[in-house]
Amino acid sequence: MSGVLKNLKTFKMLASHPEKRISFNRLIRNGDLVIVYERHDNMKAVTVSEGSVLQNRFGVFKHSDWIGKPFGSKVFSSKGGFVYLLAPTPELWTLVLSHRTQILYIADISFVIMYLEIVPGCLVLESGTGSGSLTTSLARAVAPTGHVYTFDFHEQRSASARDDFERTGLSNLISCGVRDIQGEGFPDEFTGLADSVFLDLPQPWLAIPSAAKMLKQDGTLCSFSPCIEQVQRSCDVLQSRFT
Ligand SMILES: C[S@@+](CC[C@H](N)C(=O)[O-])C[C@H]1O[C@@H](n2cnc3c(N)ncnc32)[C@H](O)[C@@H]1O
Fold first, then answer.
1. 92-241 homologous superfamily
2. What is the pLDDT of residues 168-177, one digit of tens each?
3. Domain range summary for the chain, segments of one domain joined by +
């Protein structure tokens, strides 16, 4: 059985069949990413590896016991403690990812995706990538035929995000670029092609002229800022660039 399982493609965040909705309706395999749930405030992402164990205050859990069980299963340690093995959805990933920056959480992510009207097939430009929290949900929204191009000027941060997208199985939907978007704007090759642009930058008003150039005629822009002064400056520039 395990020989057969080894030869199959491991499951990450999205179903590999392009016409299917995201589905975790299959059994856990060696190499899968799972979210180990202890309690609502204690979860972690673990890649299943047949010879490995997970050790926590509830005991020692053998990964080999997890293989072949459905996502959502309750699994037991040698001393009778238990955890749940959940599917790695973007909602859960946002709660377990390593915070390299401030991130967007589910409430804001939902709002952004709805108001930007992001649907399968969209081409989305984003900056900065940060910890990739929003990017992960953008990827699910544009799948299976769209694409997210995300830019950050911090090389290491961009590389870590790329590693995460590889781990979550989203790398075919996301391209990461290292670029100073406030200084240089988005690459010219996207001019007039973007369905949506999302900005989470310290001085977003500097990037708005470029964002306007990138958008399709009926494209949508969202700029996310924590301070009202940033919002005011962005609105001033928006008024001169958008209808
Ligand atoms: C708050 S974080 C973005 C968090 C992201 N929205 C998330 O949900 O994980 C802001 C990011 O913008 C990046 N950044 C700041 N100035 C930039 C610039 N001029 N060009 C590109 N990225 C920039 C920072 O390196 C940082 O990673």
1. Vaccinia Virus protein VP39 (3.40.50.150)
2. 999 999 999 9
3. 2-88, 92-241
Query: Nearest to residue 210, comparing CAs of 236, 232, 230, 183?
Result: 183
Per-residue pLDDT of 148-160, as tens digits, reads: 999 999 999 999 9
Return the residue whose CA atom lies nearest to atom 25 of ligand 1.
Answer: 154
Q: What are 125's strand-pairing partners? A: 149, 197
Q: Is 154 in the pocket of ligand 1 (CB under 6 A)?
A: yes
* Architecture of the structural domain at 2-88: Roll (3.10)
| Phi, then psi, of 239 in degrees rounded to 5 | -60, -30
Distance CA 15, CA 80 (A): 33
C-alpha of residue 132 to centroid of ligand 1, in Å: 10
Is residue 200 a known part of a binding site?
yes
Q: Residue 46: left (phi > 0), alpha (psi -120 to 50), or beta?
A: beta
